[in-house]
Design brief:
This protein is an alpha+beta fold. The chain folds into seven domains: 1-211; 233-298; 300-408, no CATH class; 438-510, no CATH class; 610-742, Alpha-Beta Plaits (2-Layer Sandwich); 747-896, no CATH class; 905-974, no CATH class. 46% of the residues lie in helices and 9% in strands. It contains 29 helices and 17 strands. A hairpin with a 2-residue loop joins strand 7 (707-708) and strand 8. Helix 3 (80-132) packs parallel to helix 5 and helix 4 (140-163) runs antiparallel to helix 5 (170-192). The longest helix has 53 residues, at 80-132. It is extended. Mean pLDDT is 75; it is low at 408-435, 536-541, 567-618 and 750-765. This is Gag-pol fusion poly. Pfam families: DUF1759, Peptidase_A17. Keywords: Coiled coil. Residues 37-106 form a coiled coil.
């Protein structure tokens, strides 16, 4: 190295190395109090590397001095100045490195090591005192348990001592080593005390045998069973009652209030499936477990809706069935009692619910209820309709209970068995055994339910009636049941002709006026392999007639209405199309023509707009301390289409004019189709629902909530846990046929990773486009993201150059070039083009965005005043005042691209919970609101911007700031 470079170059290299070492040293000195343990260890490694670089550069300079001295007459002797320079650089570097090592060592020991090691040693010493105080007795199991626990504590203290040995001061290091040796000696002494407990237990056993032999106890006549805590099986309706009973019994059974005992008793009282699905073993206390259970099963609104829906699903009572009437009344009382416990009886007093209960009553009881409600003395008020109905049902419950008991006392009817009239021969026995199944097909699975038989459905009407008669089934439901049992009426015939003829109620399979469906062989439904003509309609009789041609579009008129489609020239005619010049592609892909449209009212919930969905996806990434950014490669093309769907994109193609035309179809999702995004996202979510990934609850949530199209953004407070989540997400996507690009984690240096790859492989020369993103740049839903410092920035650009295929040809101007490159004149079209380039989904730069919106409104108002006849104002020049304001805005846009925002809303070293602070204001131009989080930290307070929103003031409210200030209240987060 010294032979190939000059002395000046080596000195420059040494100066650069010293500068980098100094910058890193100053950064550590300034930030060492707020850095984490891992960051301090990494800083020490980086300092050592940079110091080695300085020393190597200094050695190279010294070698160059020696080389030049050999060429002179003095020989290889260095001058005093050169020696002093070399020694000064080496000594300063060594002293600075030693000073920083001492600083990092002191910080690590003071902030992290001393507390951990002290707590571990103190816990082991306290446990030794506790175990030593136990008097030898026959309870050897308790001593063994405490001894095992003590052994774990001693091992833990020894491990912490080994870990922090190199960071502790020498005095404290010797002190802790001495304490660890004492702990090991005391533990060995306690192990030897096991013999005392063994002797004590043997003595107690011998005394117990002597006492038992001398005293004869009477045999107990009562067997006691220990009381067990109630068990929760996952029924949301029983959660609150179970929790109330469990806490009451647990307090009585465990009056000491031990948190550990309460946690294990709670886990034992839960179903294994709930413990496994919610991962309750990972929580520390019972209160945390109850919080998770409350969020899952304790929602008051969800429980109320479930109770009402369960009540409405009860079947209606038909005929005189006292037992079913009593069950219905008890179900209504139970639902009312549960809702009373929740404090939400209003859900049941809804008129729709009350009407549903009334419809389930039998005709006789319904008549009595109407007579009861019509009495003047008990006139039912609409507000108390349900209360009156409940009181009436309670009064009738005892009556129908007695009727049911009287009915059970009736002697059962004697079953009449008919003797078989045929001879008991071998052939007859085979036929009788065969008749034990279905009377039509002989299947045992549906021998009493004819409607399941496929052969029965295709029989003639007379054959069906004969099969019903031979089976003795009911003509209403096609089942075999007693007369008093419940008969299904959901499948009775509803043909109008049957009602007009006043026919007896019957199943729709027995309808004499049913349409006969012609059975079509499956061979006729197979798609033909050779297609001579491909049209975009289902049948050839519906081919429309061409009405008019405009460019590449054709208006067709046919029996199904007017449609618009692309023109399809003859396959072998020579055509000249300026937009599609090709010698091989003679036909474009088929389009599906629209037949008719109808105006429908949408009653389903509307999904959020794309900008709102992007906001919901970005904000979860800001919760955790560590973030991960993932991108799916070619997401749309990774989804395969079904065989019947590929025919929506069919085209003809050949590579040369000599070849024959071939028919092709697109077999994967095309990015140009409107439903492509929905199909791809649905495929991702269905991959997460596969049975083998049922345990990946957190990964399923990430794919459902933290993903937007092909971008996945998530965060977590633990980097190790975050890497596990990302690995499982990649496993799920791989099972669905998707491939992920390498994950980008906050804090990693992508330049270091890409440098090694560039040295190993030689990439071909590529054309760099203007304003092209660099390899280390990342995007998160339109926001720039730098992983080294874990910050967002707005990717806004000002560029007035011409476009070619939607891309600017010139470079983005710098701050000093914006005013000179602003066009003269500046039009509304150019102003709106630059202002709309600011994309800010989470409101980091709302003030600048609103300034642009206000300028656009002013431009339109100025260009088209009242009474003006000008229609097109897009290319009119703006006034000098507006142009000056727009130029100032463009310069602020350039400044904004350099501003960075912290991604994590939670800073390092927080000491308490945050305070949410909102500000709002309004004027005659706009109104808005902003939300901040104020965090108290160890080194002072920290403020983080969460979100901001703003809107333009309506034109009819302009000049009235009070109304704008009232509107801003609706923007504040609730």
């Amino acid at each position: 190295m010294a032979d190939s470079k000059s002395l000046e170059q080596l000195k420059v290299n040494r100066t650069v190395a010293k500068r980098q070492f100094s910058r890193l040293a100053n950064s550590v000195i300034r930030m060492h109090t707020i850095l984490s343990e891992e960051e301090l260890r990494d800083s020490l490694k980086k300092l050592t590397i940079e110091a080695n670089k300085v020393m190597e550069a200094n050695d190279e300079v010294e070698a160059q001095y020696v080389a030049e001295a050999k060429l002179d007459a003095d020989g290889s002797v260095l001058s005093e100045q050169q020696k002093a320079e070399i020694e000064k650089t080496a000594s300063e570097c060594e002293m600075k490195l030693k000073e920083l090592k001492d600083l990092i060592q002191e910080t690590l020991w003071t902030n992290f090591g001393e507390e951990e090691l002290s707590m571990a040693v103190k816990a082991a010493e306290d446990e030794i005192e506790c175990v030593s105080s136990i008097v030898p007795s026959g309870n050897k199991e308790v001593f063994d348990f405490m001894l095992d626990h003590l052994e774990r504590l001693v091992k833990m203290a020894k491990a912490f001592c080994t870990q922090w040995k190199c960071w502790a001061p020498s005095v404290e290091q010797k002190d802790f080593q001495c304490r660890i040796r004492k702990l090991e000696q005391a533990f060995l002494k306690l192990v030897s005390r096991k013999a005392d407990f063994i002797r004590a237990k043997a003595k107690e056993d011998s005394e117990r045998l002597v006492t038992a032999a001398s005293v004869c106890y009477p045999t107990p006549a009562i067997k006691l069973k220990p009381t067990s805590l109630p068990k929760f099986t996952g029924i949301r309706r029983d959660f609150r009652r179970w929790r109330r009973d469990w806490e009451a019994l647990q307090r009585q059974g465990e009056p000491t209030g031990s948190k550990e005992v309460k946690k294990f008793q709670l886990l034992d009282s839960l179903d294994d499936r709930i413990t496994r699905d919610l991962r309750l073993m990972s929580y520390n206390t019972a209160d945390d477990i109850f919080l998770v259970l409350e969020n899952r099963f304790g929602s008051q609104a969800a429980v109320a809706i479930e109770i009402v829906e369960e009540l409405q699903r009860l079947p209606a009572v038909r005929g005189h069935q006292p037992k079913r009437i009593v069950e219905l009344i008890q179900a209504v009382e139970k639902a009312h009692q549960d809702l009373s416990d929740l404090g939400d009886t209003g859900a049941m007093k809804n008129p729709l619910v009350t009407k549903s209960i009334e419809s389930k009553l039998p005709d006789g009881l319904k008549k009595e209820w109407l007579l009861y409600a019509a009495k003047k003395s008990t006139a039912v008020v609409p507000e108390e309709h349900f209360d009156s109905l409940l009181a009436f049902l309670k009064s009738q419950e005892s009556i129908y209970e007695q009727l049911d008991q009287l009915r059970d006392e009736d002697p059962p009817k004697r079953e009449i068995k008919f003797e078989p009239r045929q001879a008991r021969t071998r052939v007859v026995n085979q036929s009788s055994n065969h008749s034990s199944g279905c009377v039509v097909c002989g299947d045992n699975k549906h021998k009493k339910k004819l409607y399941f038989c496929k052969k029965f459905r295709i029989l003639k009407l007379t054959e069906k009636k004969d099969a019903v008669r031979r089976l003795g089934a009911c003509t209403k439901c096609l089942e075999v049941h007693d007369d008093d049992d419940h008969c299904k009426t959901s499948f009775q015939c509803k043909n109008v002709e049957c009602k007009n003829q006043r026919a007896i109620d019957h199943h729709y399979y027995l309808c004499p006026y049913a349409e006969v469906v012609r059975v079509v062989p499956l061979s006729e439904l197979v798609r033909p392999r050779e297609i001579h003509l491909l049209i975009s309609h289902k049948e050839g009789q519906l081919v429309p007639q061409r009405v008019r041609i405009v460019g590449d579009l054709v208006l067709w008129d046919g029996p199904l209405g007017k449609t618009v489609a692309g023109s399809h020239p003859e396959l072998f005619e020579e055509i000249a199309v300026s937009a599609h010049i090709s010698k091989t592609h003679y036909a474009r892909s088929m389009r599906t023509a629209a037949v008719k449209y109808e105006e429908l009212t949408c009653v389903a919930p509307i999904n959020p707009l794309p900008s709102q969905q992007a906001l919901f996806t970005v904000q979860p990434q800001q919760k955790g301390a560590f973030a991960a950014l993932g991108d799916i490669k070619k997401m749309y093309n990774s989804v395969w289409l079904e065989d019947r769907e590929v025919h929506l994109h069919r085209f003809l193609w050949r590579d040369s004019e000599e070849e024959e035309l071939g028919e092709y179809a697109i077999t994967r999702v095309n990015i140009g189709d409107k439903p492509a995004g929905c199909i791809a996202q649905l495929a991702v979510r269905e991959s997460a629902n596969l049975p083998q990934f049922s345990n990946f609850r957190e990964e399923h949530r990430v794919l459902q909530e933290d993903s937007y199209v092909d971008d996945i953004l998530t965060s977590h407070n633990s980097l190790d846990h975050l890497k596990i989540i990302t690995a499982n997400v990649g496993q799920i996507l791989k099972a669905g046929g998707f491939e992920l690009k390498p994950w980008v984690f906050s804090g990693q240096c992508r330049r270091d990773e890409s440098a090694g790859k560039l040295e190993e492989e030689v990439t071909p020369r590529a054309v760099v486009l203007p304003n092209q993103l660099k390899d280390e740049d990342n995007k998160a839903l339109g926001l720039g993201y730098t992983v080294e410092d874990d910050k967002f920035h707005i990717m806004v650009r000002i560029n007035f150059s011409k476009r070619k295929k939607k891309m600017r040809l010139g470079q983005d101007p710098l701050l000093g070039q914006v005013r000179a490159q602003t066009p003269e004149p500046l039009t509304q079209r150019e102003l709106l083009s630059q202002v709309s380039g600011l994309y800010d989904p989470i409101g980091l730069a709302t003030p600048l965005k609103q300034r642009g919106a206000i300028l656009v409104r002013r431009a339109f108002q100025e260009a088209k005043p009242k009474g003006s006849t000008i229609k097109e104002t897009w290319d009119l020049a703006l006034s000098d005042k507006l142009r000056e304001d727009a130029t100032d805005l463009f310069e602020d846009y350039v400044r904004l691209s350099k501003v960075k925002f912290a991604r994590a809303l939670t800073p390092v070293g927080i000491s308490a919970e945050p305070n949410a602070i909102t500000f709002s204001d309004g004027s005659e131009h706009a109104y808005g609101a902003v939300l901040y989080l104020w965090w108290p930290c160890n080194q002072g307070s920290t403020v983080r911007l969460v979100e901001s929103k703003a809107k333009l003031t309506p034109l009819d409210h302009k000049g009235e700031a009070v109304k704008a200030e009232l509107c801003e209240q609706f923007l504040l987060p609730v």
